[in-house]
Amino acid sequence: MNSATRILVVEDEFVTGLEIRARLEDLGYEVLDILDTGEEAVRKAGELRPDIMIMDITLRGEMTGIEAADTIRRDYNIPAIYLTAHSDEATVQKAVHSEPFGYLIKPLDERALHTTIRMALYKHAMDKALIEGEKRYRTIAELSEDLLFILNRDTSIAFLNSRALAFFHLPSENSPYPSLKEILPSDLYEKIAVQIQTVFEYGSSLHATHHFTYDGEDFWFDCSIVPIITADGVIQVIGQFHDVSALVRIEKEIEKKGLVQIEHNMEQFQILNDRIRNPLAIIMSLASLEDTKENIEIIEQVKRIDALVTQLDHGWVQSDAVRAFLLKHYGHGKPID
């Protein structure tokens, strides 16, 4: 593994540089060159593209080792291990703030040198994999038709996908994002804020369907709030808003049509009642004029029909109650006189 690892050494003391080269080659590494200025280190890093650099903090020229390492990492994504003869707190803090992949104190210990290089290469590989993974997941998020967001523990927004940016009329630039309270309609925010707090507190997912008004239009979203822990142990939550407004509107339209049909049927019952009872009264009157066998049979049949109509009357009274219920709870049906 070591023979494939190419190292660029940046050290302003010539003898120390030769010593580092000898130790690295003894360990099986390939040393590409020994440089003594930060400016030259930046140029050579771009040309040679080493796997890793060993960078002295104090160098000749205008650029320090820390500045050179930052530039090289930003431009070429090459990790650096800092090397210094100073272990004072100020030097260490300055180096730590630049987030090096390792830190060595002169004079070098061969075992520490080997271990630090291996750990730095491993950390760099993991960081690269995480970056690639994040890019992959962001690409998936951008392809989603759902509104997606990631919140930090203080509920500040870490990420919004394009669908969310477009829905809430936000610019496509990533950062800084407005607060969630500024983005969401107030009636939706009050519900979601409680869910988010609960997920952060208990670490379990929550799912709910929320109705809200935005831009003068009614929406229904299936909302999922899920906790995540990042590679560095930071707790965040992912929010997924799935728009089900079209489905809800269809269901409501179907429901409305059903209620309208019930209303129509009740009206037909009343019309049928009126149209049957009036002719029955006339038939009864005519049949009662003569006490014949035929008239007696007619009267008996009229009574049977009248009994059926009476049942319709009872049904109509019940339908009035149904009508009142529909009017009160669904807004459908005509007021009852």
TrEMBL record:
Keywords: Phosphoprotein. One of its GO terms (biological process) is phosphorelay signal transduction system. Residues 6-121 form the Response regulatory domain. SUPFAM superfamilies: CheY-like (SSF52172), PYP-like sensor domain (PAS domain) (SSF55785). The keyword Phosphoprotein applies. Residues 202-256 form the PAC domain. The keyword Cytoplasm does not apply. The modification 4-aspartylphosphate is found at D56. It holds the Pfam family Response_reg. InterPro entries: CheY-like_superfamily, PAS, PAS-assoc_C, PAS-like_dom_sf, PAS_4, Sig_transdc_resp-reg_receiver, ST_Response_Regulator. PANTHER family: RESPONSE REGULATOR RECEIVER, TWO-COMPONENT RESPONSE REGULATOR. This is PAS/PAC sensor protein. It comes from Methanospirillum hungatei JF-1 (strain ATCC 27890 / DSM 864 / NBRC 100397 / JF-1).
